UniProtKB/TrEMBL annotation, chain A:
Keywords: Membrane, Transmembrane, Transmembrane helix
Species of origin: Virgibacillus oceani
Annotated InterPro entries: DUF112_TM
Location of the DUF112 domain: 20-438
Segments crossing the lipid bilayer: 20-47, 109-135, 147-164, 170-191, 203-224, 258-280, 318-342, 354-377, 389-407, 413-442, 463-486
PANTHER family assigned: TRICARBOXYLIC TRANSPORT PROTEIN
Name of the protein this chain belongs to: Tripartite tricarboxylate transporter TctA
From TrEMBL, chain B:
Signal as UniProt keyword: yes
Cross-referenced InterPro entries: BUG, Bug_dom1
Record protein name field: Tricarboxylic transport TctC
Entry keyword Repeat: no
Length: 501, 339
């Protein structure tokens, strides 16, 4: 069956009354869930499994897919408004989203996020439509050495995430790597740094660290700083973007739709890593990298486009190979099995209505999300006009609920508090928090991939250079580490000459 | 202006309410009267704990059992499923021990034997009351479709000659299920199990690593292999069941026993109650699980998931678990993993 025929069949499913209704329900639920911290799409979809029992499998899957990509839309709101990311893929959005909100441009930031999500979601669905079977080869091309190289490449970006001292950024990164080792070591089953507590055995949840370092630390400095006014607040709800701003973010969104999608195709990489890689790569490409971190539109557009594109990318291995690329798609795979459909390499030929129905529904779902999200922006933004003491309490409640919802354990709340304090101290001493978080995300997978590779190669390091993909990425990693150093030295040298002259 | 403000506050209140209720409900009020008489019926709603996050095997089994108890009317009280993730199950087990109420049950499988043996939990199956086992799954060992091995004996012969040339991948860490099921069969075939190269991939990359040739053997569950076998991407060298299983494709999978290797491994799944459960309550649940296992509605669920029927009553279950644990302990000691 050719693509257009398939797509036509897909739209028959997606544009049926049931189809439209359940896409709408899915994306609405997804948006709300994205806004609530802790309650990620995995939980929502798992709870839905008994409900979908007996439903038409195609409709059930498009409902669950709607929740999944809807959550990536909703996640931006709390990141931008409160500096409190509700889902892990929205963490990178805080880097520029929150500074924008502080400057009174919350509406604008939310609009950029919504448009970015729409562009990323839509362009990647087009890729999914035309190249899914082709790209399934990309999805299986990565083994342990390739993953190690990819993670290392991501890690070299630490330097570019720092403002000011590179040394401090590196220290922060090393702490992140250390935290990533907490828990049961996958390669030996040994407990590391758990101090006998079963609560630490599965490691520390990413969200505990993110909410502590970002939201709680921010709240603490607001309270202690007794800064009463944010900057200019009267236009807070306006989402009007100028022509120049559209022009500025256009290429960013285009690039990140592609990059995000490709990262999403790789099983295990996913939305969080793609949003970080998106942010970093745009900062490197930008002519004005100094604007990043201070409220750059591109800094919001990049991660929001990339994470939505990655979510759709994760459907490539799921639909064309039956391999789940993320926790959420793994749960969806389980749900499909209940419905009598075995996802696998034959899904496209055995159940074309499911395969194409889901793809077609994503076109519709993305339009729904844009229509749903844009009108909400002025209302959401006004949360910032709430009196300061009330808003601060709100953020704290938000963080506590979010962390508690992860595993219903009070232990995590103490951890949250600890990371809040650490985050505040880091601010006082000018240590950037982003490298810590990035190293934490990449560190776990990087270490495992490194050790898997060495087990496979019987301890020989050559495995990292004999694979062309891994070799190329390691080369890129070295370049991206050295080039800025040389540039800095040259710049410093020039300055010296200028001074002496 | 004021209106807008109240609207936005309202939205957030709703959001919080939703978050709270998702966490707080289903907390059954546990401590009802246990009654002195010989019969016991629950007076409150029942809680089944899945000691893992949402979406995994424990969670699915618990949710399906709860749903079918309700739909068939076998148990009239409401049954809620609660996730208590952490410590590979240890957090959930500690919770049940602490509640110590006949209204709090939990679902479990081989990790309740493995986790304490690996020194990762102070509680094991001996600390609880086995109620009934319900279903079973079996392990499968798969290789790429174009691999040179066609059965387990050929693979194990090569492993004996040069253990460093073959890498086995699984989704869990050494000493846990994917590893132990392979080790158990390999040992019976005469392989030196201390030399097996095993890597664990917990980020969903195990199957891809097999397909792209990074690793040689994939130790997993049968269900995970079926579609890939149908599509001609991988082949299954052997499964850990006692006898041939039924089902499309699955009926072609040879057991290890058929290949002359005298060992099997069952991934059983069943339900447990608190320590020293009241006789009458235990009897109540035992009967209900038996009825569930025999119902046609649950048979349909088993069919859908590819689970096999494996009912055991409390007594049988307990003896079975003690024997399994002794077997596994021997393996772990030889591997130097037992704590």
């Amino acid at each position: 069956m050719d693509v257009f025929q398939g797509l036509a069949q897909g739209f028959q499913v997606a544009l049926s009354l049931d189809g439209i209704l359940f896409v709408l329900i899915g994306v609405s639920v997804g948006t709300v869930i994205g806004m609530i911290p802790g309650l990620g799409p995995i939980t929502a979809i798992a709870v839905m499994i008994p409900i979908t029992y007996g439903m038409d499998p195609a409709i059930a899957l498009l409902l669950m897919a709607g929740v999944y990509y809807g959550a990536a839309y909703g996640g931006a709101a709390s990141s931008i408004l409160l500096n409190a990311p509700g889902v892990s893929e929205a963490v990178a959005t805080t880097f520029d989203g929150y500074p924008m909100a502080k400057q009174g441009k919350a509406g604008k930031a939310l609009a950029v996020a919504a448009i970015g999500s729409f562009v990323g979601g839509t362009i990647s669905v087009v890729f999914l439509t035309f190249f899914a079977p082709l790209l399934s080869k990309v999805a299986v091309s990565f083994g342990p050495p390739e993953y190690f190289a990819l993670m290392l490449l991501g890690l070299t970006a630490i330097a570019s995430l720092s403002e000011g001292s590179t040394i401090k950024a590196l220290i922060s990164g090393v702490i992140g790597l250390m935290i990533a080792t907490i828990g049961i070591d996958a390669q030996t089953g040994t407990l590391r740094f758990t101090f006998g507590s079963p609560h630490l055995m599965e490691g520390i949840d990413f969200l505990v660290i993110a909410l502590g370092l970002f939201a709680l630390a921010e709240v603490t400095s607001l309270i202690l700083g007794r800064k009463n006014k944010m900057d200019d607040m009267h236009n807070v709800g306006s989402l009007r973007l100028t022509k120049e701003e559209y022009k500025e973010m256009g290429p960013t969104m285009g690039r990140q739709s592609v990059l995000g999608f490709l990262v999403g195709v790789l099983p295990g990489a996913g939305g969080t890593i793609s949003s970080f890689l998106g942010y970093i790569s745009e900062k490197k490409l930008s002519k004005k990298p100094e604007e990043f971190g201070k409220g750059s539109i591109k800094g919001v557009a990049a991660p929001e486009t990339a994470n939505n594109a990655a979510n759709n990318g994760a459907f490539v291995p799921l639909l064309s190979l039956g391999i789940p690329g993320s926790g959420t798609t793994a749960v969806m795979l389980g749900a499909l099995i209940v419905l009598g459909i075995q996802p696998g390499p034959l899904l496209m030929t055995d159940h074309p209505d499911v395969f194409w129905g889901v793809i077609a529904s994503m076109y519709i779902g993305n339009v729904f999300l844009l229509i749903l999200n844009l009108p909400l922006i002025p209302y959401l933004s006004r949360i910032l006009l709430v009196p300061r003491p009330l808003l601060i309490s709100l953020v704290i409640v938000f963080c506590v609920i979010g962390v508690y919802a992860i595993s219903f354990s009070t232990f995590d709340l103490y951890l949250l508090l600890a990371f809040g304090i650490i985050g505040y101290l880091m601010r006082l001493l000018n240590f950037p928090a982003a490298p810590l978080l990035l190293a934490f995300i990449l560190g776990g997978m990087m270490e495992q991939a490194f050790r898997q590779s060495l087990t496979i190669s019987n301890g020989s390091l050559s495995i990292f250079v004999t694979s062309p993909i891994a070799g190329t990425m390691l080369l890129l990693a070295i370049l991206s580490f050295i080039v800025p150093l040389i540039k800095n030295r040259k710049a410093a040298g020039k300055e010296n000459i200028d001074k002496s002259a | 202006m004021k209106k807008l403000l109240s609207v936005s506050v309202l939205i957030f209140l709703m959001v919080f309410a939703a978050a709270c209720s998702s966490g707080g409900d289903k907390e059954a009020s546990g401590s009802g009267d246990e009654g002195e008489g010989s019969s016991w019926t629950p007076e409150n709603s029942i809680e089944i704990v899945a000691p893992s996050g949402a979406g995994g095997g424990w969670d699915t089994t618990a949710r399906m059992a709860a749903k079918m108890f309700g739909e068939t009317g076998i148990i009239e009280q409401d049954i809620g499923v609660v996730n208590k993730p952490g410590g590979g199950g240890a957090v959930g087990w500690a919770y049940i021990k602490e509640r110590n109420s006949p209204y709090n049950l939990f679902v479990s499988s081989p990790p309740i034997l493995l986790v304490p043996l690996n020194g990762q939990s102070q509680y094991g199956h001996e600390d609880f009351t086995p109620i009934s086992n319900l279903i079973a799954d079996y392990g499968a060992f798969a290789v790429k479709a174009d691999a040179k091995w066609d059965n387990l004996n050929e693979l194990f012969e090569d492993m004996k000659k040069d253990p460093s040339s073959i890498t086995v991948v699984g989704a869990s860490s050494p000493g846990s299920m994917d590893h132990i099921q392979f080790v158990k069969i390999a040992k019976a075939a005469g392989v030196d199990i201390t030399k097996i190269k095993y890597v664990s991939d917990q980020d969903g990359g195990a199957l891809t690593s097999l397909l792209n040739g990074s690793v040689d053997v994939y130790s997993t569950g049968i269900a995970e292999t079926v579609e890939q076998v149908k599509a001609g991407k991988i082949k299954v060298l052997g499964i850990t069941a006692e006898e041939r299983l039924e089902g499309d494709v699955i009926s072609d999978f040879q057991t290890a026993k058929e290949q002359g290797i005298d060992a099997s491994f069952v991934n059983w799944r069943g339900f447990f109650g608190p320590p020293d459960m009241d006789e009458a309550a235990l009897k109540f649940y035992e009967e209900k699980f038996k009825a569930l296992s025999e119902s046609s509605e649950f048979a349909e669920i088993r069919n859908k998931y590819g689970w096999n029927e494996m009912y055991m009553n409390s007594q049988e279950y307990k003896e079975f678990l003690d024997k399994e644990k002794a077997d596994i302990k021997g393996l772990l000691e030889e591997l130097g993993l037992a704590k």
